[in-house]
Amino acid sequence: MTSPKFDNSYARLPDRFYTKMPPTPVAAPSIIALNDGLADQMGLDLEWLRSDAGLAMLAGNAMPDGAEPLAQAYAGHQFGGWSPQLGDGRANVLGEVVGPDGARWDIQLKGSGPTPYSRMGDGRAGLGPVMREYIVSEAMNALGVPTTRALAAVSTGETVARETLQPGAILTRVAGSHIRVGTFQYFAARQDREALELLLNHTIGRHYPHVDEGDGLGFLNAVIVAQAELVAKWMGLGFIHGVMNTDNTHVGGLTIDYGPCAFMDAYHPATVFSSIDQGGRYVYQGQPEVLVWNLAQLASCVLPFIDSDKDKAITAAQDALATFGDHYTKAWKRVFFAKIGYETGGDAQVTMVQDLLTRMADNQADFTRVFRALARGQGAREEFVDPTSFDEWERDWDGGDAALMRAVNPAIIPRNHRVEEAIQAGLQGDYAPFHRLNAALENPFVDSPEFSDLEAAPTQQQMVRQTFCGT
Ligand code: AMP
Ligand code: MG
């Protein structure tokens, strides 16, 4: 058995990037889930992970040799308001490993105890949010969406106080990095040019190796493209992130920080789930626009590395940001054309997609079920309150490529009511629904009779109308 071979590049950055500190031990840890496939991909020894030493690491109780746990510093705009000091208030990056394919992974514990960035928080995570992030982040990966991953979930044997008392848990989150727009903002706000340059080059090395060192504009353009692609994928799955604050916007173009996120059942562009999003800032249809706002914050941080002449740098950054729309539209077309079975298309196909979406919104049609039904060649019209509305649309549609649609329109998504059901069972100590849901979500594009119940839309009673951070 071998413990992870760490190579901690972030820990080699200067002290002001983080606080080096170990996680706070927990009373009685036990494994809820261990992601074998991901462990393999990362080159980790499964037998070791399952050993007492492995569990001790996943619980934050004892660090293996080579780990250099730290809490990262970052800042961010939360719902548009500036917070100069956020940071990992309940997380520790233990270190980095390089997988057999050369990919570098941060191993992070989320819920691992208080840090200097905890503010009023207890540094812990509840079982519900940990299960939710495990399910949804792994589902996103299987759905083809760039995302942080879930390597493990453990229960701590302790209790956390939220709206109610809840068992404590820790998620082992892994990702190519945990660098956010807010990480850049942290140093820009402190006018720490040296740190910004180190961060820029560190990030380029980890996420955009084709960009030259020190090339702020090349970096900005790369992030713009990655984020445009990402949000188009969210839109194509009916995914609503819910808290697109700049500290929750990953510079590598990954989905990060699954809090009150949700998948729409019935399609409506104005859908908002999060209980804390009173103004609807992070509404489904508003997500691309919010990203541009977040990317503008990133742009302002890297101006010194775009041009030494500030006016020229601003103009170049604005020009770069102005390309987001084109990148997004291109990605949106690719995603939504494929959803109706077309590799490519033009204005007529855009109109077809928009017409279908409008009819779906008018008819409370289930987003996932309608598109999967198109791939199956039957069942779509029944999803519409007025089925003739679909018939009218279908008259102009030539059927599309079924194989293409099957590959992009999932049969199974982590429906809110199913996630909720799995969490409620978990809170009672029964993890069977959680494991079953995870198993089904490993192959979301396959019609599996054994999981067909998970395809159903919620009944009025099952429907989840609001989601909570639960942090
Ligand atoms: P989030 O809303 O999860 O993106 O978190 C925003 C900020 O609050 C981050 O700095 C988190 O580390 C911090 N935070 C969230 N929950 C807790 C908690 N229970 N204890 C300490 N800090 C927390
Ligand atoms: Mg966050």
Automatic annotation (TrEMBL):
Q: Which domain of life is it from?
A: Bacteria
On whether Magnesium is a keyword of this UniProt record, the answer is yes
According to its UniProt record, which reaction does this protein catalyse? L-histidyl-[protein] + UTP = N(tele)-(5'-uridylyl)-L-histidyl-[protein] + diphosphate; L-threonyl-[protein] + ATP = 3-O-(5'-adenylyl)-L-threonyl-[protein] + diphosphate; L-tyrosyl-[protein] + ATP = O-(5'-adenylyl)-L-tyrosyl-[protein] + diphosphate; L-seryl-[protein] + UTP = O-(5'-uridylyl)-L-seryl-[protein] + diphosphate
What Enzyme Commission number(s) appear in the record? 2.7.7.-, 2.7.7.108
InterPro entries of this UniProt entry?
Answer: SelO (IPR003846)
Entry binding sites for ATP = G87, G89, R90, K110, D122, G123, R173, R180, D257
TM ranges are none
Entry cofactors: Mg(2+); Mn(2+)
Give the residues the record marks as binding Mg(2+). Answer: N248, D257
A Pfam family recorded for this sequence? SelO
Please explain the role this protein plays, according to its UniProt record: Nucleotidyltransferase involved in the post-translational modification of proteins. It can catalyze the addition of adenosine monophosphate (AMP) or uridine monophosphate (UMP) to a protein, resulting in modifications known as AMPylation and UMPylation.
Which NCBIfam families does the record cross-reference, listed alphabetically? PRK00029.1
What family does the Swiss-Prot or TrEMBL record give for this protein?
Belongs to the SELO family.
Q: Which PANTHER family match?
A: PROTEIN ADENYLYLTRANSFERASE SELO, MITOCHONDRIAL
What is the name of this protein? Protein nucleotidyltransferase YdiU
* Taxonomy of the source species: Bacteria, Pseudomonadati, Pseudomonadota, Alphaproteobacteria, Rhodobacterales
Gene name of this polypeptide: ydiU
